[in-house]
Design brief:
single chain, mainly alpha, two-stranded antiparallel sheet, 8 helices
């Protein structure tokens, strides 16, 4: 319940118009306040997947769904270990099958087309996420 109240307080703080919805810039600022630093691409993909009514805004339930999809903040340590745990086949890359399993293990529902988009956005043309791409994705923007 405490976590819900935290998210609600952040949502309300960034819902400056009081209309019970937030836009992309507001979402990015809210996530930064909670220790997450998603890229613009992640924000765009989140809106594509979560903005059910295609209003261009997220209501509180949609915002909560996005928050629950975010990895916990990382203090800069543990990237190599985290990457190796996710690279289950030891190929040196996180592929689409491994991404699918990550979403499945975290209880995050994602459609196959969205999974392919995520893989392409994060892993480039080949859809495989290298360690360098993983670190870039996980670190806050400079």
């Amino acid at each position: 319940m405490e976590e819900l109240q935290k998210y609600k307080a952040v949502f309300d703080q960034f819902d400056t118009s009081g209309d019970k919805k937030i836009g992309k810039d507001e979402l990015k600022a809210a996530m930064a306040q909670m220790g997450h630093h998603p890229s613009d691409d992640v924000i765009d993909m989140a809106f594509e997947e979560l903005d059910k009514d295609q209003s261009g805004f997220l209501n509180f339930p949609e915002f909560m769904e996005f928050c629950q999809m975010q990895p916990p903040p990382d203090n800069g340590a543990g990237f190599r270990q985290g990457f190796q745990e996710l690279d289950t086949d030891g190929s040196g890359y996180i592929g689409v099958d491994e991404l699918r399993e990550i979403f499945k293990r975290t209880g995050t529902k994602i459609s196959e087309p969205m999974l392919q988009k995520v893989a392409a956005k994060l892993g480039g043309e080949d859809g495989r996420i290298s360690f360098e791409e993983f670190v870039t994705m996980m670190q806050p923007p400079q």
